[in-house]
């Protein structure tokens, strides 16, 4: 029969490992989701970019129509001005012509700006498309790698659980019952190494008698936090060293 303290140490190793694996497994779908969200956002940005270009084309067309209409209007006003019968009508038309010409200049500037923007955006479009494609390919690779990694971790988790159960099965019925109750409340933190006289989990000192019991790998629970205690790696080494010195 393996001594309980040695079993507890193995159990803690496996249960901590199982917990870490579970955490890693749980993170993977979140990572995949984050990639999907990123691609969706990029796709939307690209679509907005294309829509903006389309709108720009419509705007340019509308302004060109308006430019033509305004020019026709100036020609008509000038004709009316030439045919004006009195000075008052002549002056009024003159003001209207000046205002219309100012409007033409404004529309002309706007057309120029819109065309410049259209040219710049059209030139940038292939690069935008390239970036989106690259990001999609990258996301697909990440998803594939993550999915493979998840299967790998799940296999490791299953293996670890088998080892954990095997260790638990080594405990006596009485110890197992106590252990199960503590596991219910503390999960993978149900056990704690003892460093010197201190429970590593709750930092409380145990009595010298308890320390000696832990050193003899007996079934001992911390009186402060209730966790089951086992000798830490460090303590084991110290004991081994002092034994070697004693024998030498
Ligand atoms: Zn404790």
3D structure, described in words:
By secondary structure, the chain is mainly alpha-helical. The protein folds into 2 domains: 13-157, Orthogonal Bundle (Helix Hairpins), CATH 1.10.287; 173-247, no CATH class. It contains 5 helices and 4 strands, in the order αααββαββα. It has helices at residues 4-82, 87-168, 173-186, 208-215, 233-247, and strands at 191-195, 198-199, 220-221, 228-231. The protein has a 4-stranded mixed beta sheet, with helices on both faces. Helix 1 (4-82) packs antiparallel against helix 2 (87-168). It is rod-shaped, with a radius of gyration of 41 Å. The site of zinc ion has 9 residues, from loops.
β-strand percent reads 5-15%
Roughly what is the average pLDDT, rounded to an integer? 96
Gyration radius, rounded: 41 Å
**Termini separation:** 30 Å
């Amino acid at each position: 029969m393996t001594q309980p303290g040695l079993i507890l140490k193995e159990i803690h190793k496996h249960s901590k490992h199982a917990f870490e694996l579970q955490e890693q497994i749980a993170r993977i779908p979140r990572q995949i989701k984050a990639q999907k969200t990123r691609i969706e956002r990029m796709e939307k940005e690209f679509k907005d970019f294309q829509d903006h270009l389309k709108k720009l084309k419509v705007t340019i067309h509308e302004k060109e129509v308006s430019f033509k209409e305004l020019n026709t209007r100036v020609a008509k006003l000038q004709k009316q001005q030439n045919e004006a019968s009195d000075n008052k009508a002549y002056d009024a038309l003159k003001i209207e012509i000046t205002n219309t010409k100012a409007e033409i200049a404004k529309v002309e500037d706007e057309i120029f700006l819109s065309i410049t923007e259209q040219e710049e955006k059209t030139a940038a479009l292939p690069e935008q498309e390239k970036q989106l494609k690259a990001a999609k390919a990258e996301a697909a690779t990440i998803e594939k790698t993550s999915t493979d990694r998840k299967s790998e971790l799940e296999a490791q988790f299953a293996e670890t659980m088998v080892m954990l159960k095997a260790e638990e099965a080594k405990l006596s019925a009485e110890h197992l019952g106590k252990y199960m109750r503590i596991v219910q409340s503390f999960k993978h933190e149900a056990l704690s190494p003892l460093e010197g006289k201190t429970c590593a989990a709750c930092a409380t000192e145990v009595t010298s008698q308890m320390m000696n019991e832990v050193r003899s790998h007996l079934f001992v629970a911390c009186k402060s936090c209730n966790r089951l205690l086992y000798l830490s790696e460090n303590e084991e080494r110290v004991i081994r060293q002092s034994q070697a010195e004693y024998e030498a």
